[in-house]
Amino acid sequence: MGFLGLFSKKEVEEKEQAARREAMGDLRERDKRTKQNVLQGQQTDLTNLAKGSQVKFSIPYFDVFDPRFENFAVPVAVHGMLVYAVDDIALFNSVNKTQNINDGMFLQKLKGQVTKYVKGVVTNAPIDNQIPVLQLERKIMEISALVQNYVTPQVEKLFGVNVRSIDIESILIDKQSRGYRELKAVTTDIEKDTLQARSSLNLDAMKRQQEMSLGGQEEMQRMQLEHQRETMRIQREELQRASRLQTETNFLGAHQANLNAEVQTVQAQAQPQGQMAAPPMPGMGGMPPMPGTVPQVSYMVGVNGQQYGPYNWGQLQQMVQQGQLTHQTYVWKQGMPQWQMAGEVMELTPLFQGDAPQMPPMPGM
């Protein structure tokens, strides 16, 4: 310090340099704090995304091709909205490197990727899912589901966010475009031809159904008639079989009598040769046999239009006892001119001597 409190030139210069250094330190400190505040503000804004944010996107007209007519490019525009949130802030900061990004940059990048993904899905939807381009406006729910399934995992992986929903609000077709008008004309002609062909097929189907119905009724009637005929045939055969069985049963005893008569014949032949059988007397059917003798006869018996036999005397006796041979039964033997009732044949009258005469009809009957 100089005399009387005065400073030397050197001291003054040193004080000025110290003041300048202090001022520069304060400025650097303010700049540092300012930068920190900016970074903290940015991170705070991005952290607030955990509450949920919306991003509307609008894709201007782009060409979409019909899977059936790939030569017609139809302009299509899409509008929608993405709702997302940040559930894991550490993952979000790691993926997006928030020290170098702000809200505007993040939203711009997010909207660009969403637009690209949605445009790709809508462009490929007609061919991949066989959706006619002219029906895209009516298929908005199906298209929205396709976008949701494809875009959601892509966005979550790329930006470290949780996509809560992505919705296609509208799909617009430029109906004034040349591609739309050409495609509309072609599909209208095809739909008309298809409608006519379908109508023709329906008429043919109805005609065939009617023919089948009538044919089915006729076939049913024919089958019923055939069934009735077959039933009647079986019934006739059953009746004939039953009649034959009854006849065979009736004459089963006669057959047994035939066997017995043969035994009697053998016994008669074994008699002494000195005894001679009485010669037959002339007359229709022969004369009645003498008492105590067994006539040697052989008669045919007619029953229900069929003839049975021949039967000898013993068999005829047994048939009379069983009611199988009556006065009205027709009989015949060799030498008779024709069939006669057994009651009219004199030779057979001894067979019916034990029978009561037939009762005459009552007066007035």
Kindly describe this structure:
This protein has helices at 9-47, 89-96, 103-129, 140-159, 178-250, 252-269, 313-321, and strands spanning 53-65, 73-85, 162-173, 299-303, 306-311, 330-332, 340-341. Helix 6 (252-269) runs antiparallel to helix 7 (313-321). It has a four-stranded antiparallel sheet with strand order 5-4-6-7. It has 365 residues and is an alpha+beta fold. Helix content is 53%, strand content 15%. The chain has seven helices and seven strands; from the N terminus they run H-E-E-H-H-H-E-H-H-E-E-H-E-E. It folds into four domains: 10-47; 49-174, Tetrahydropterin Synthase, Chain A, CATH 3.30.479.30; 196-250; 253-262 and 294-346, 2-Layer Sandwich (Dna Ligase, domain 1).
